[in-house]
Amino acid sequence: GGRDEKGLHIIIFDEATRLGGSSIYLPHFSSLLQNSSINITVDKNIFEWLKVHYLQQAITAGVIAEYGSFENVITNPNAIKKMVLAFREGIQVCRLLGVRTYRIFPAYLFNIPVFLIARILQQMFSEQNTLDMIINHMKKGYSEWVVGYREVLNAGRSLGLPMSVWGSYEKYIDLT
Question: What is the pTM of this model?
């Protein structure tokens, strides 16, 4: 969803809300969500999942910086193909950090051919709820995405990865 001067905008997808960690509040929070008719799943590997999920916002900052808006991205197949290649580099960073990416959605999908995953992403990004969610997140969170972009870029480089596609957004990020 997102937040603006009018309040919170909440989008609840059909997929289960992922919870995890070792908080003593997890059972209570799980119960609250379930009582609100929100499907949940408890993920014992939530921290690995979060590292992969972190890539999504981080690379979105780069692609938006280059193409000017998310709307421009979703109408440009080449922008999405480039994003897929960059995401693959981010997945490699996660692997080198010990994340078992073969077990984590959507990381394992990035093994299919670029043109197929790009088409899937373009369709997913064009769904109104997804589009609204990303645009609303950008309103208050884009600067955090930029920090994430730089963190992943620096982590990859420090691990000896060239980060050539991921790094190609850097000049555009520097302008934002």
Answer: 0.87
Q: Which residues pair with 41 in a beta bridge?
A: 18
Reduced DSSP (H G I as helix, E B as strand, rest coil) percent helix, strand, coil of the chain, to 5: 65, 5, 25
Residue 160 DSSP SS3 = coil
How many structural domains comprise the chain?
1
| DSSP-derived 3-state class of residue 19 | strand
Which residues have a Cβ under 8 Å from the Cβ of 136 and sit 6 or more positions away?
Answer: 1, 2, 3, 4, 9
User: Is 64 part of a structural domain of the chain?
Assistant: yes
Concatenated DSSP letters of 74-93:
HT-HHHHHHHHHHHHHHHHH
- Answer whether residue 54 is part of any domain: yes
One digit per residue, pLDDT tens: the chain, 176 residues? 666 778 776 767 678 888 998 789 999 989 999 998 888 999 989 999 999 999 999 999 999 999 999 999 999 999 999 999 999 999 999 999 999 999 998 899 999 999 999 999 999 999 998 888 888 888 888 999 999 999 999 999 999 999 999 999 999 999 98
